[in-house]
Amino acid sequence: MHLNLMKYHISHTISVNPQAFCNAVFNHLRRSMISTLLLFITTPCFSAQVDLYDWLQSNAGKWWDTTPSALRKAILPTPLVWMNREKTKLRYYAGQAKGKNLLTFAGTNICEAVFEFHDKHLNHIFLSLYNRGDAGDIERDDFEDMLSNFEQRLEQLAGFKAEKEQSRIGAVRLYYKNWNNDSGNFNLRWSYSRNRTKIPEYISLTIKPSITDNLAPDTSVNHAGVISYPSADRVKTDKNGNRYLEIPMVDQGAKGYCAVAVLERIMRFYGSNIDQHIFAQMLETSPEAGTQIDSMFKALRRAGEKLGIRSILIYRNDDFSSRTKFKRMITNYNRAARRAKADKLKSKDFYVTIKRHLFCDYRAMAKAIDPEIYKKMRIEEYDREFKQFQEAIITNIDQGIPVAWGVVLGLLCEPGKRPARQGGHMRIINGYNPQNGKIIYTDSWGIGHEFKEISREDAWTITMFAETFVPR
After folding, report:
1. Smallest Cα–Cα separation from 172: which of 57, 284, 92?
2. Taking phi first (over 0 means left), then psi (-120 to 50 degrees means alpha), and beta for anything else, what does residue 291 get?
3. Within 10 A of 84 (CB to CB), how many other CB atoms are there?
4. β-pairing, 108-109 with 81-82?
5. First-to-last CA distance in the chain?
């Protein structure tokens, strides 16, 4: 969310103390900005908006009888899309609502909502009420007002007050309140950044059927919660000979959250409920720029250490680990380009300085490089590593272990629907086909991206690194 501040025009010459006048102008603009921000966050702006809190309140105790078609009808015309091929999860995302038909909760625009179904009946609701990645930064006071509103509304819905509790995931401190009654279990969670200013990070709400075990509070959403481990029994084989793992789908939205979305999906595969916003806070991921390839690699390692997850490196493309190695790769490429009578490249054209550190500009490289020449060079120059990469993929999938896969988009043309973008990206290798040699992978872009294929040669060409994460 961005606020564009108009210039403050003065149409008349007045006699006033300059300092006092400047202070008056500043205070006027500050009040205007805060009013605009609060209006955006808390006030329904369109007649087509549906407030989910009102629906919950008027249907107390009957939510879990709701079918997908009944839910669609109840919150029309809010757009909902399926998240998976099994059609067990419906998702609302404010970024796709295009300024209309917005879904709200207690008067606040929701960033994201996921409705899960079991036996065609609703059994789990997740609401991202606020997160920095989608909604941008807000003032601490505005965040506290928003949080207070949610707490009061949930107290009304549950019929009692709940105590504030806290827990930690790595160095990240999480706060939560839990309400449980005959209608359902409500878990409100929020967090702040770790620096002194305590920047608001997110507020989320999970609603599910009542916990009947002595009304014990549900804290499973506040820790790693790994409940399953790799197993060959989880590998599926279809009629085409594909051997694959079913990885829970998470949609990263328009944010540069591919790395943290991959982490969430792998952790959910192992039974955890940590979401990408917690990972983003833990790894200090930028929603605008995402994570540099090298930073992705280090971030995944840090996350594994903090969560008690063992990380094992399968392969890392060292051509991008230093300027010297990158120059060597360009020299090899130019040798192949000369034989193909193609244009040569200069390594200096693909480096940018960010905060006094040199990084490879993957977008520029993807535009300049000849994909077929680069692919041939990669296979011929690194034949042994290529074979080891293939063997490692097969070994891990057969053991029931998904592979976090860092790639450069734009080097090759990939079939199928995907966002038009170039540069560093993170996805998951979740299978392979022993008959045709293709690798099966999935992107965190929602339905239609759960099961995709790529030749092993193309996969090798775009690979920056591959790593596994296994619960200890």
Report:
1. 284
2. beta
3. 16
4. unpaired
5. 40
**Two structure tokens written together for 47:** 């007649």
| pLDDT tens column, 106-138 | 999 999 999 999 999 999 999 999 998 888 899
Q: What class is the 232-471 domain?
A: alpha beta
Q: Give the whole-angstrom CA distance, residue 175 versus residue 281.
A: 14
Q: What's the rounded Cα separation, in Å, for the pair 461 and 466?
A: 13
**103 and 110 Cβ atoms separated by less than 8 Å:** yes
Instruction: Reply yes or no: is the peptide bond before residue 77 cis, omega within 30 of 0.
Output: yes
Dig out the tokens for 273 from the structure: 């409920």
Two tokens at 146? 């928003």
Amino acid 339: pLDDT: 93
Q: How far is CA 110 from CA 53, 222, 258, 386, in A?
A: 11, 21, 21, 45
pTM over 0.85: no
Residues 6+ apart with CB under 8 A from 439: 393, 429, 431, 432, 453, 454, 455, 456, 459
pLDDT tens for 362-379 read 778 888 889 999 999 999
Instruction: Break the chain into its structural domains and give their ranges.
Output: 50-222, 232-471
pLDDT at 366: 80
Q: Return the sign of the alpha-carbon dihedral for residues 225, 230, 232, 234.
A: positive
User: How many other C-beta atoms can be found within 10 angstroms of the C-beta atom of residue 202?
Assistant: 25
